Amino acid sequence: MPVVTLTTDFGTGSSYVAQMKGVLLSLCRETPTIVDLSHEIPPQDVFAGAMFLGDACPRFPPKTLHIAVIDPGVGTSRRIVYAELGEQKFIGPDNGLFSLVAKSLVPKLIVSIENEKFWLPERSQTFHGRDIMAPVAAAVMNKVDPREFGPRVERLELNRSWPECETKGCYQVSGEVVHVDSFGNLITNIPVGALLDEFDQPSVADVQIRSEIIRGLSKTYGDAPSGSLIALIDSGGRLEIAVVNESAAELLQAGRGEKVVVRTE
Amino acid sequence: MPVVTLTTDFGTGSSYVAQMKGVLLSLCRETPTIVDLSHEIPPQDVFAGAMFLGDACPRFPPKTLHIAVIDPGVGTSRRIVYAELGEQKFIGPDNGLFSLVAKSLVPKLIVSIENEKFWLPERSQTFHGRDIMAPVAAAVMNKVDPREFGPRVERLELNRSWPECETKGCYQVSGEVVHVDSFGNLITNIPVGALLDEFDQPSVADVQIRSEIIRGLSKTYGDAPSGSLIALIDSGGRLEIAVVNESAAELLQAGRGEKVVVRTE
Amino acid sequence: MPVVTLTTDFGTGSSYVAQMKGVLLSLCRETPTIVDLSHEIPPQDVFAGAMFLGDACPRFPPKTLHIAVIDPGVGTSRRIVYAELGEQKFIGPDNGLFSLVAKSLVPKLIVSIENEKFWLPERSQTFHGRDIMAPVAAAVMNKVDPREFGPRVERLELNRSWPECETKGCYQVSGEVVHVDSFGNLITNIPVGALLDEFDQPSVADVQIRSEIIRGLSKTYGDAPSGSLIALIDSGGRLEIAVVNESAAELLQAGRGEKVVVRTE
């Protein structure tokens, strides 16, 4: 059965997501399986959306269609795109939202959505998720050739604000917190690969955040007593800072953008 | 495939929604597609629920069944109804919740749900969503004739607290904020139709909220620089007040009930 | 159609739930109906998860598979189990999470999930929901014999922190608040059965919480005027304390753990 996923910054307190679901179900010839990924991306936070999609979408079965609407430029000249990356399909604003999925999934086809034939006939200026993206998604589900949606484009816009971690080549890797999860765990932009490149034994490196120095990496939360501040490699392969059974975000009063340095002496 | 939607004020921190889904899936002969519209309607806020349903439900395919439970009068004498409005079907308390869908969708059949044969055999006094509405919804999905649910009734209860906007016939339209979305946009009860009736050129009218006067209407958020206070017609055809890339609710310290006046000099 | 439900403490602001859905959909041969029960269980709160599952899961159709991930001990030696309780199937950490469902549904088969053949080949130390539970759930949906997952075990771990209500045999039952719902209703651990055992007429007993004494039980919220503090039997058969059309939690400044005593003079 065809699967279409939804990722937005709309919340569900307003009817925006419900309206998109209604349009999708109305226009798909065969009832698709609609899977909510998240509607709790922070408002207009393209960076958070890009990271979310980068982590989640590659896990889906081939031919899944992902609609993603974090779209601060709605109604302006920013493009709306249909993209085939690896075996996955995407529809959303071309504002950097697909920067990270495009790193792990090879772009095969990118189309600028311009052919109004596939849009809702009555359209607002402020809700292209409902008026353009949902009906075009239905067209994809109905097996319309995506090249009918508009002209091919060469490449997706990249999110330039994505902070890369830095390796100074002197047994030191610097990065920052890029996400805080519901447990208060601090996820950084330092991939395990960067640690392996830089250190003979990353597991004994020191991790500094604010004025705290964490000696060595733990394997999992349960390796240390409740309340311990630990560093570990998270389920996405990135350095994470956590407090066992408590919230590191709260204890350290740290959030996105907080600097993290890994070094050996 | 048959589609049934759920709209409640239960949140998902308690098991109420999950229990309703269990009953629905247990009693439907064919597994329906259950679509969550929202469980974040503010507690017992019939007005907010009515507006949500009015915006979302007309978007769904014909024969969709919408269950809506915002039911402060649960266990009292308020009626529970099954209603066919336009091509959509509804089940919920008859407390004004369907006031706004009934404006855009013509009522065809309204039945007072009284026949206990279709209810759960063991019933609580406080959770009719699970004990009455979900099993009756399953009966609808199982193609029971709705006239078996109870006697026909002539009309739905209307929500008398819905604030109508006022046209004073002197180039002035007054209304108020009726919803704040996740972006902090302020949605008013002033429809674009009222503006078109009153002004030759609504796009150059002044919009006043608190002590702020906004000169003219923008087309979309991106038409003005970040941080600008703007007024525009929202995706539901109502006057909306927004701050580009920020939250108007926060900046103006304004919420539901805040007065808004549109006028020309 | 096969149904699989998800209950977690992940929230949907992070991509953890989305990743589990992706793995499930990728590995199930037939697209299952995935039903979100809750992702808003308080972080690492096994007790709240146990109560949620105990209330929700018995409502589902036979053969439903429930995946529950509230797993503070992830990566440590705590077992992951597959359990058939009554006609329902469960996968989750064996940390007490299934204590309450196991009270109402008779355990038929409990298997310790140890056979790595059914897990994702690349696994993290911190996300067994995605790497072990989701793929084993897919194996269940694909009709693998659960005895292949690992050795049978005799019994599930019980949550020892579950507070039982006390009957002192002198016309008095003591308990405490175990859940606060979205309306601010205070749900206690005092089952209606304990009241019926202890009192000739529970409906006229006094209920004490903090310094308030509530005289007698109401049938439903609408039985008393707005703002009244009432006690009633909730939809789960437990004593509940509520304020009509308002929040008892807020008015009494009471939450989980607050003592409640029922007595007659």
Verbal overview:
By secondary structure, chain A is α+β, with helices and mostly antiparallel strands. The first copy, chain A, contains 6 helices and 14 strands. In chain A, strands 7, 8, 9, 10, 11, 12, 13 and 14 form an 8-stranded antiparallel beta sheet that branches. The first copy, chain A, has a 6-stranded mixed beta sheet with strand order 2-1-3-5-4-6, sandwiched between helices. In chain A, strand 8 (172-180) and strand 9 (186-191) form a beta hairpin. In chain A, helix 1 (16-27) runs parallel beside helix 4. The longest helix of chain A has 14 residues, at 128-141. The termini of chain A are far apart. Chains in contact: A-B, A-C, B-C. Chain A binds chain B through residues 9-19, 21-23, 25-26, 31, 33-34, 36, 43-44, 72-76, 78, 124-127, 130-131, and chain B through 1, 3, 5, 7, 33, 35-42, 51-52, 55-61, 64, 179, 181-184, 219-223, 232-235, 237, 240, 245, 247.
Topology diagram in text:
Three copies of one chain form a homotrimer.
Chain A: E1 3-8, H1 16-27, E2 33-38, H2 46-56, E3 65-69, E4 80-85, E5 88-93, H3 101-104, E6 107-112, H4 128-141, E7 166-167, E8 172-180, E9 186-191, H5 192-198, E10 206-209, E11 212-215, E12 229-233, E13 238-243, H6 248-252, E14 259-263
Parallel strand pairs in A: 1-2, 1-3, 3-5
Antiparallel strand pairs in A: 4-5, 4-6, 7-8, 8-9, 8-14, 9-13, 10-11, 10-14, 12-13
